[in-house]
Amino acid sequence: MRLLWLLLPVIPSAFAGNNSDPLFWGTYRPNLYFGLRPKVPQSLMTGLMWFGTQDYQSITRTRHACDQGDGLEGYSWTEYDPREGGVQVINDAPNNVKITTQFLKVPGGEYGGSWAARVKGEPLTPARPSRISPIFYFGLEGLGGVEMETEEQENGIKGPVVFTGSTPELDDFTIRVVEGPSNTLITEGPHADAFRHRTGKTHLLGLRVPPGQVWQAKDFIQKPLIKYAQDSIGAYASDTARNYPDPAFVFQLPDEFDYNSNLFAIQKHYNGPFEFDIFFESGKQKLDSAVLDNGMPTLSAVYNQRFDSVFPIPSNYETSDLESLRSFSKAITSNLIGGIGYFYGTSIIDRGFAYEWDQEDDGGSEDLSGEKKGPTLVEPKALLTATPSRSFFPRGFYWDEGFHLLHIGQYDNDLSLEILKDWIDLIDDDGWVAREQILGEEARSRVPAEFQTQVPTNANPPTLTMAVTAFINRLREQKGLSEQDLGLDYGMGAQVPLTPDVSQPGRRLLDEPELALEYLRSIYKPLKRHYEWFRRTQRGQIKQYGRKARSRTEAYRWRGRSEQHVLTSGMDDYPRGPPHAGELHLDLISWMAFFSQTMRDIAEFIGETDDAIAFEEIAKATIGNIDDLHWSEENQMYCDVGVNDDDDSYHVCHKGYLSLFPFLLQLLPPDSPHLGAILDLLRDPEHLWSPYGLRSLSASHPDFGQGENYWKGPIWIQMNYLALSALYKTYGAQEGPYQQRAQAIYAELRRNVIENVHKEYVRTGYVWEQYDPLTGAGRRSHPFTGWTSLVTLIISEKYD
């Protein structure tokens, strides 16, 4: 079977004329262990649930939404291509089952094509019972309808189950659920004769649920299932010997259907290994199990070949288990891309909230637009975005997304640009975009109430600029193809082949320059508006406190901080000075210098020459002010700036990630007189250096490991990626007094990070949000295949 999507490049949404692109369907419900939907605000949504039937307590271990509390030994897409499909493995030890989900897209028609899925199960421990009841469901939001073609039976159905439906976005479609060839259905157990009329069959449920509530399918489905169980065991309640029926006989869907149902559930009961197939057939297209039998091996072969081409492990990297490292790299890349979600719904904003040190404008009850202040629901929006963690952060985060897109862009340039365009489309008329995109009730259900409201004066690190810069760099490299035959030398012996593979999907905007220009022009104005919003709303004070700097305008301060946290900076509890309207933040001014350089690069590329000159002047002024305002000669480090009780300006110095920012964003020249002190700090085991990566806060700092301990020592992979990128691309590649030292630090740090994250993945089955600064053990959210998946880029030395 040929994977025809390979011949069909995606067109970003701004240029799409219909929904026939291969990215239309996907695993766009990443908060679920397995959930599919199209990129349509209101349409068909699917999901998978399962529980064990070994005993009556197993129903409490029903799996549906990814949850760290489920105690799984690991779950990840091991292979996933966004245009083709993939394979996911879920190790559910409490239920003693290894679930494998296979997903295959099948092109055809103008309505997003068809797809097939196979759900397989086998015991994790063969010597223990493995009795599993999977429930596949689908629900319809918005216009359209679904009907069951298979004749209803009050005691269950034997054989395939077939539904037909139609919506404006999907047109006519058929959904079929088909039993595998070698399943053992549960037909024997206590009181089997009393339930013989219902055993060995598929059980169903059809419900009419209110608009906007299909996402609560688990609750809707479990309620009648448990009621049926209670009714079924009622006759046995007085049995003093507790000789109850087999749980598989009573935990069954009731085979009942509401009038005009829009949520359907299909339940199986298996003993031991099992598999069943689900087919979504668009229009008159017909699929069968052979599609999966032939298609999945082909998908796997193509994926592995492409992965090795895009993310090779350099031959000079020494490891005792190359295949384990490769499988790890594939899994974290696959789970990042398989964790992309499509979200739609309202959000909550508060245009009036401000801490006292941020109250610089009018203090009335209405803002300048006349809108009332206070938490308010705003109009629904849509967003395609990667997610940091399917279990804990299954939504869009601005701070994270720029890093996600660096990784996704290497594998599928056009997909990364479609996601980037969705984010840029969220920029409002004032230039603001919320740092967390909590769109709709399903997303809000996973967020504590105190964090649901977004404030339009609060920013976040503008990491989307990194994705833009990476795209421009890829364009420049592509442009150089006609000028060079061998490759580009990126320093330290790394040769990048320049032979384009035009058959590779996801690179149309690289191969067709006119589309690239059109894309950059489409994002330029909103991104410029966003840039100007930053410069207007996050500006800091210079002349008010007698500060001396070559520029009188370029100084910045995060709005929205509290006494103990600067959530807007992304480094929540990292030590800062006391809140004050006159404080200045080193990380923010560094981001603004980088933002200015990005705007210069776009302007140059699309021919906005005057703008490019202006952005270059601002970038130079900002970088100059980093030295003038933030360098502490006494402490030999870059620092925040505070204001004391006498209104005097002073440096607030806490050795850690913050101190490195001008270096991390490659704003310093290789011959900077401050570079040596930065490398000393970075490499000192008493401060940031550890055998596992760079610590977020000096080990000698009194706050190290204290309190919340989120950014007070733990190792964060995205920050280590920035350090490695700076060492590799700039300070180890370009001539300067510290070139050799930078190269040596790079090699050692790279190995430390790779080995520790890989080791913890092998040990625990997960990659983690952060790593312990003393032991290297994984900490907090897992799986965290957002920016921790950057380890794949570190392995293959792909630094944008």
- Structural class from helices and strands? alpha+beta
CATH fold call of the domain at 25-310:
Beta-galactosidase, Chain A, domain 5
Question: Major sheet, described briefly?
Answer: 8 strands, antiparallel
List how many beta strands DSSP finds.
Answer: 29
Q: In percent, how much strand structure appears in the residues? A: 15-25%
Tally the helices. 17
InterPro entries: 6-hairpin_glycosidase_sf (IPR008928), 6hp_glycosidase-like_sf (IPR012341), Glyco_hydro_63_C (IPR031335), Glyco_hydro_63N (IPR031631), Glyco_hydro_63N_sf (IPR038518), Glycoside_hydrolase_63 (IPR004888)
Domain Glycosyl hydrolase family 63 N-terminal: 23-249
Domain Glycosyl hydrolase family 63 C-terminal: 296-797
GO molecular function, one term: Glc3Man9GlcNAc2 oligosaccharide glucosidase activity
Descriptive notes:
By secondary structure, the protein is of the alpha+beta class. Among the domains are: 25-310, Glycosyl hydrolase family 63, N-terminal domain (Beta-galactosidase, Chain A, domain 5, Distorted Sandwich), CATH 2.70.98.110; 654-799, no CATH class. It is built from 17 helices and 29 strands. The strands form nine sheets. Strands 4-5-6-7-16-11-10-9 form an eight-stranded antiparallel sheet. A hairpin with a 7-residue loop joins strand 6 and strand 7. Helix 5 (398-411) packs parallel to helix 8 (464-479). The protein is elongated, with a radius of gyration of 28 Å. The relative contact order is 0.09.
